[in-house]
Amino acid sequence: MPALSEQIVGGEFDYIAQRGDSLTGVGARFGVSLGSLAAKNNLPPDSRLRIGQPLRIDNRHIVPVRAADGLVINIPQLMLFYFKDGQLIRALPVALGRPDRPTPMGSFKVVIREDNPTWDVPASIQEEMRRAGQEIRSCVPPGPDNPLGKHWLGLSMSGYGIHGTNAPASIYHFQTHGCIRLHPDDIARLFDDVSVGTPGRLVYQRLLIAKVGKRIYLEVHDDVYKKTGAIQTLFEKAIAAHDLGSLVDPEFAADIIRRQEGIAREISRGTGAKIFQ
User: Fold this and answer.
1) Does 157 share its domain with 225?
2) 21-51, pLDDT tens digit by residue?
């Protein structure tokens, strides 16, 4: 049963396209799916952006779990949250494991902090290189070709870590071999935040509900690892458990569940047609 959150991060704002921008890259930087970003701006998903083109961004996300200290990574949401002294310090989009190489769930601690890491390529990835006809490499030294980027936080989950990337457009996608990948600027900040021993949890919450003041919000994501059952049933049980039935418009909620666009939307009664504007 999802907890009732009281906090939403992100917002709605305007962005001006820069040289080299793409819808995929902009979505990756701000934690918005390609489909949601394209729809918000009435653009085909394969649109090419021109320099100076205005885009409307909506990257509101519900904070899934509050922690006293440490990291919470919600897998379906593709978001990492860092808490200190009970306060949310950072909310960052991440890339996680492909469905065939899923990121594991559970508790962990940071056990290694390493600048400019060398990537010791696992045997399984070397085999993927062989099958793809690529050069097989057993290790990759620090530098621009290193897929770990400039920072590595090794976890107590053996073989897994939080790291940067040399492919920023891959963020906010399920593209890794199970590790947690961040934009280079984000991992640099997080690296300074955490220390050896920092605790964390990897959770799997594809349905999130928040009550902020008198407003109710819902956020729904695809069941990428096929872990949950009927999402409508889960929603109805959660609404009943938190006694929110009289505050929620069921038609708005059903539409959000159908869309599964991964953005926090208000579902309070009386919200009206503004919900998808």
Assistant:
1) no
2) 999 999 999 999 999 999 999 999 999 999 9
